[in-house]
Amino acid sequence: MKILVCIKQVPDMESKFKVDSEGKWYDQTDLAYRMNEYDEYAVEQAVRLKEQVKDADITVLSIGPERVKEAIKKALAMGCDRGVHIKDDEDYKKDPYQKANIVYEFAKDKGFDIIFTGMQSQDRGSGQFGVILAELLGIPAVTTIVGFEYADGVVTAKRELEGGKKAIVKVKLPALFTCQLGLNEPRYPTLPNIMKAKKKELLTHDVSEFLKDEALVETVKVDYPEKKGGALILEGDIADLVEKTVQILKEKTSVL
């Protein structure tokens, strides 16, 4: 079984963000970076599947500048077999469609049986990459999975729906799965596995080898959230509060 895991390196969400000089993204200097949290669940599920089927082989792939190799090395220490770094110093300027096309060009002739991605990235949060990649490859996509079982070429996945509801989906491989928080508990790389990871294959390709399509979406401007006035707190008898609330809505809004 051939498994591909797509991961992204993102800033630590506790970082202090500033809009960059172009006003189209955040300033990437002086930020601490880590593997996207959703992708950690994808890596863990891939490694668990390998432990189950024994003959599986896991490739972990990431697009980005030189620093993304640190995220790839963590995935290798968690149990992936080889890493692929598609070097792109301006990956943040590419939309999900363009990135999915880059991975498609890499993966289209590799015969992957199963692909794991995170449900979304913590910085952009579009949730589009995985389903676009599956569409390009012509395979089913099962999104926001919180449960995963494999047997005889069929995956039974539990999907998270709105309102706390779940759906059970069965799909034959090849297929792609986007992983939601809570799917599993990602393992912490041990020191021996970190040392083993240093000897694992990590190939680097320039993005120009796979870049075929133009972006469909352009980020025009990034700005800070607009500051608005404070809340109005009403106190007193319930009947009076209702009357005051209705009056405020009439005078200050277009709701009534």
Automatic annotation (TrEMBL):
InterPro entries: ETF_a/b_N, ETF_b, ETF_beta_N, Rossmann-like_a/b/a_fold. Keywords: Electron transport, Transport. It comes from the Bacteria. GO terms for molecular function: electron transfer activity. Residues 23-214 form the Electron transfer flavoprotein alpha/beta-subunit N-terminal domain. Belongs to the ETF beta-subunit/FixA family. This is Electron transfer flavoprotein subunit beta. It comes from Deferribacter desulfuricans (strain DSM 14783 / JCM 11476 / NBRC 101012 / SSM1). The lineage of its organism: Bacteria, Pseudomonadati, Deferribacterota, Deferribacteres, Deferribacterales.
